[in-house]
Amino acid sequence: MKYIIGNWKANKQFDEARAWIEQFGKFDFSKLTEDSQIIICPPYPFIAYYSEKIASLAHVSIGSQDLSRFDEGAYTGEITARSLSGIAKYAIIGHSERRSYFNESPDMLAEKAYKAKSAGIEPIFCVRGTDDPIPHGVKMIAYEPVAAIGTGQNEPVESIIAMKQKLKLTPDMAFIYGGSVNEKNSNVYLANPDIDGVLVGGASLDPIRFFEIATSCT
Ligand code: PGA
Q: What pTM value is reported for the model?
């Protein structure tokens, strides 16, 4: 499987989100390889709308950018795995921006991964390197070196593969790279048999660029 994951972060208002999916839905999805899985991770307010809009699109699913470590209850403002289940199939957990701006600790992230799994949501667990522990049961790892995020300094394939070896993943785990992936460099990652996909921030905000990335391994 090749995962093409779009992480919009805290961008767009509803009209822009609607325009994005309307344009995206008109692309020729027969250009995608059979093993492609596109995962769009918009901000929470657009998730339910997006899950309806993508229902007829082959190879496309919705993910959240985070979820609560709490179960449902009196936690004002939280978005639980249970609220997301049925509309999001995946959840990004442990993005370096969550770790640094929201002080998310390894223990909190392990709880979040567990909550996701328990609700039938597949965690896409982000690590910055070998110092970030991978919670038990996680099957999708996104390696995102901080220096490569949003800087245009995408990491070369060789050092990504070296990191994969250091992380000591089991063969059933997907290994995804993220950090300044765009339509010009995505092919190098997606064509590599040791890399199972890309996590795209900035370049996913434009549907044309994101679809170019998704079709760049064909
Ligand atoms: P970027 O972000 O593609 O804008 O570098 C990647 C990410 O943070 O997931």
A: 0.98
